Amino acid sequence: MGKVNLKDNDIKEEKTEFSLVRVKDTWKCKQGKEVNRDKVDCVSSAKICESKTERGISWTVVSPIVFTYKVTESRGLLDPSNDTLLLGHITDSQQLEDLKKSIEPIKRFVVIDEEVYKIYGAKLTEYLETNNVLYKILALPTTEENKTIEMVLNILEEVNNFSLDRRTEPIIAIGGGVCLDIVGLAASLYRRRTPYIRVPTTLLSHIDASVGAKTGVNFANCKNKLGTYIPPVASFLDLSFIKTVPRRHISNGLAEMLKMALMKHRGLFELLEEQGRMLLDTKFQADNSAYGNNCLQAASQATYIAITTMLEELAPNLWEDDLNRLVDFGHLISPALEMKVLPSLLHGEAVNIDMSYMVYVSKESGLLTEEEKQRIINCMVDLELPVWHEACTMELIQRSLRDRLKHSGGLVRMPLPVGLGQSEIFNETSCEILHRAYEKWCDELSNPLDNNSES
Predict the structure, then answer these.
(1) Cα–Cα distances in Å, from 143 out to 147, 183, 294, 350, 452?
(2) Secondary structure of 51-75 in the HEC alphabet?
(3) Out of 48, 74, 153, 358, which residue is the most buried by the measure of CB atoms under 10 Å away?
(4) Catalytic entry in 7, 101, 136, 214
(5) 269: which residues sit within 8 A by CB, 6+ positions away?
(6) Is 129 a residue whose pLDDT tops 80?
(7) What is the mean pLDDT of residues 110-138?
(8) For this structure, is 136 an active site residue?
């Protein structure tokens, strides 16, 4: 490879910064930072910087992109008297008033997981027809094995045939995290960005996929290798969907909740430690529960903390410009593990196995005490989460960490707990510690009784 000559420090450069203003229907560059706003219709937050040298001219565009999206709890989302699903995303009061007065029917394209449709299809249809909605419901098998670009294209064909307005008629996704990811990617591609709404129906998607901006599908045997950073206009959360979720899927969601607890909220960890089994038994519902108000209070508190701590980490770094991310805990090894044994492990189960091993890494690094390590592992077992898997070999761990280096700017950026509810990111964990942690992890947890991955 040839060398590039960088000895051009003496080249003279003339820089000019322009503001962008709109007069009537035309945007124009306006030199200088002060703009008389009385003489223009609009001043953009974007800037154009012009640089002239003897070699030519270059332009640098600085265009801040702001996304605003809502995450809203709403019980009885499919109650025909509740208009949240149809109108809850609208923030402009005049637009909302005009829509309510309009005699034109609302138009909505709905993609729903086919298993969710079996349970809620009749109720969803009744909701849309009662509210005079012109609709199309597309029920699909949105499983991890089907999380492909082909399914995205299938959705886009149907959306195109339905002929949506690209600005005012959001696509609605109803299902678990896989469904929300697939539909989000389809919406972000259709006419370069069509608004969409997320309605999570699993605990994991309720506290994880529904509150972020990422969309994606699997590609080249890698998890979420194709995707975008386009948030929904709104996510509507209704915990009553969780009551029809199998028990194993409740545990699956509790893994992501435990992740946030270990990373940054001791109070949430202690809540899961003391009341996690109750939440698992009751599926976060107070109805017909022997636990009564205790369950409702614990469920509300746990989901509130999980969502707010997740938003704290995601909102300032929506496009992952900063690769140091605490929410990556449990996600260094789990993507490769999950794809290797697909479909035997659910996402949260693979994440928990990753976290379990990393807890041992923390202990061997002197970041956790033996008591803290044991409390964490006991909590995982009480939540009926797998803490070890035979497919999580040292070779898989090493390969995953090498991939991490490749895609994270040459640093491993390993989030590790440094106490209960506290964490830091580390870049220089030695091979010796990784191997020692692995040996102890296998010695202590490889008993089949501890491995619930096949349950």
Answers:
(1) 6, 13, 34, 15, 20
(2) EEECCEEEEEEECCCCCCCEEEECC
(3) 358
(4) 214
(5) 258, 261, 262, 376, 379, 420, 421
(6) yes
(7) 98
(8) no
